[in-house]
Amino acid sequence: MALFSKEEFLSRIKRTKESMDRAGVEVLIAADPANMNYLTGYDGWSFYVPQVVVLALEDEEPVWIGRGMDTAGARHTTFLDRERIIGYPDNYVQNPDRHPMNFVADFLKGRGWERKRVGLELDAYYFTARCHQELVKSLPQAAFVDANLLVNWIRLVKSDQEIEYMKQAGRIVEKVMRTAIETIRPGVRECDAVAEVYRAQVRGLPEFGGDYPAIVPMMPTGEKTSAPHLTWTDEPYRQDQAANLELCACRHRYHSPLARTIYLGPKPPPRLQELAGITVEGLNAALEAVRPGEICESVELAWRRVIARAGFEKESRIGYAMGLNYPPDWGEHTASLRAGDKTVLQENMTFHMIVGMWMEDYGFEASESFYVTGDGCRTLADFPRKLFVKD
Amino acid sequence: MALFSKEEFLSRIKRTKESMDRAGVEVLIAADPANMNYLTGYDGWSFYVPQVVVLALEDEEPVWIGRGMDTAGARHTTFLDRERIIGYPDNYVQNPDRHPMNFVADFLKGRGWERKRVGLELDAYYFTARCHQELVKSLPQAAFVDANLLVNWIRLVKSDQEIEYMKQAGRIVEKVMRTAIETIRPGVRECDAVAEVYRAQVRGLPEFGGDYPAIVPMMPTGEKTSAPHLTWTDEPYRQDQAANLELCACRHRYHSPLARTIYLGPKPPPRLQELAGITVEGLNAALEAVRPGEICESVELAWRRVIARAGFEKESRIGYAMGLNYPPDWGEHTASLRAGDKTVLQENMTFHMIVGMWMEDYGFEASESFYVTGDGCRTLADFPRKLFVKD
Hints:
2 copies of one chain form a homodimer. Chain A contains 10 helices and 14 strands. The longest helix of chain A has 24 residues, at 160-183. In chain A, helix 4 runs parallel beside helix 5 and helix 9 runs antiparallel to helix 10 (296-309). The first copy, chain A, is α/β, with parallel strands linked by helices. Helices cover 34% and strands 21% of the residues of chain A. In chain A, the strands form 3 sheets. In chain A, strands 4-3-2-1-5-6 form a 6-stranded mixed beta sheet. Chains A and B meet through helix 3, helix 5 and helix 8 of A and helix 3, helix 5, helix 8 and strand 10 of B.
């Protein structure tokens, strides 16, 4: 039933407390849904109301605080004892006169923590300016510390069980990508192709089902390939155009993104084929550069050297840490594969490496999700790295 | 091509400015993706990085500010002229040393607005505590005003074109619900049933495709019906259990949710059938109570009277304003159908009315999305209101 052992949660909590101690945080209030899941197991689509996990250095285990109706879900998904699952009354919800963070502050007072150094995730998606204001107002004696990304950095190195779920997502995403390539053809509406992708994501495999990825499928074509975050329309795909397929699969909130490019026509332009060749060669070189002890920027350098030989350059990063997450992003916002990032790679770190080259009127992109092994890296999916051609 | 006329955007902007004026706001910084869309048309899955629409009383039209790579999407989806679409450099993204809100502050300074009364959406999902801090730090001479929900309240009354998109979503959701009812049966894995729902949502109809709803499909069964926000598993549905179907369809970001209950077996318990009968009767009575000039709490009272006759009561609200939105919620966070809400109903307001009755070990729920007409209301979907029985 449980997705992770209690020992694994206790190990996560121990490492979080060590990091809190170093950062001078006595009580951490984690509002990032992925961090809440990481520390307790909590999984539910309830992050549209304020909810937090509170972890104090002096306390054994964390406390989950959320909306009363979601305590049943917390009992179902977390490893916590019942007394560590606390619901606020429903009249705190979307009420101009009171805010759930007043309730959280009262909880801290009840524990005698109102003078502590309190860590907050100041740039977490669902920790709004008002959440912050209400805590500051309700806890005038506390000292607040920015603990943004504190838990995210601990999430960077995965356990074997986490890697296992990511491998399962990798197996699902192979099927998702095959589905996209088989479905897209001139005349098919974008929405109909995306629908088959969604279906494949959620069905998963006969052995295990799929979860919802943190980002919707992105399958732009034509001029929209240069507008990277537009979603689909009900227009048909057209002949002699390339389409980017930025897809993903998810298993128990663990992601495995995968990107490829498909050309809709029998004869891709030679320059597109050449660009695809160089880009894949650079991707291969960067993957080969990954090993424990190496630093993130060296991986990017391996890519850069290959494309420079062909006269290309690319300014943006070529990858980022990724794993457990919720909408709107599967990225962990910690290490990046880019110039200047000195993060030392360790076994069981997981990244999404995505390279795209965009010319005036054509382009190619491809990606791999991988984990760092004892002597290199292994991709989560096994899928040909090339320009796919649909004739 | 454009989803709404320029005149419609100008009318929205005019009403927003009137509301700003009443609230003492000279410059509004809107960060809620739905409000950004409402004021400009912007639609993209880019809200995982900070982005805003800035509207000043003294300026004709708003300005869109977002990540550089998303300006192409803004040119594609908004009605704005190019000079009103401003991208910040990519080194503002997830960089501890600088924040996109510093860029937004510089923009305000460039316009000479740094001493204005600046309205912020302090409780909007993607307006983090750090976003607020950086604006306050970078604009020391500004006076900040909480303008949370200011645009949301204007969104409450829809235009005819908005209603048209919601009706289209209503037609899609009929198909989505039929798909769910046809697919769920004992032995089918939850993920496989949800996959068919997703497919139906996104395919839409031959005449128009579907968009991604702001909330994932919720189809809990058994004990999980009492944990309302858990998503699906890969366990099979079982015989002689009820399942809640909380589904939705979306068209151009406009939603039409619909909920029903299905019993998986030929013989639903008589007490469940009785409960379904009373609940539907209450739902019908509440829908009949809707008319322009009536207040929200009266609609709830009509429901409450019906169920009181059967000896039931229900504390929580039975509906909320709903329409244009993005994850994680399709609700507008303004008017609610509940005791104490004195909002006066007007033609073209849109709500999701959802009633659920939960006993110790069984329950029933149903919902309708509707718009207020000249003399009552009309539901967006046409779907039988009853307990569905799968034999």
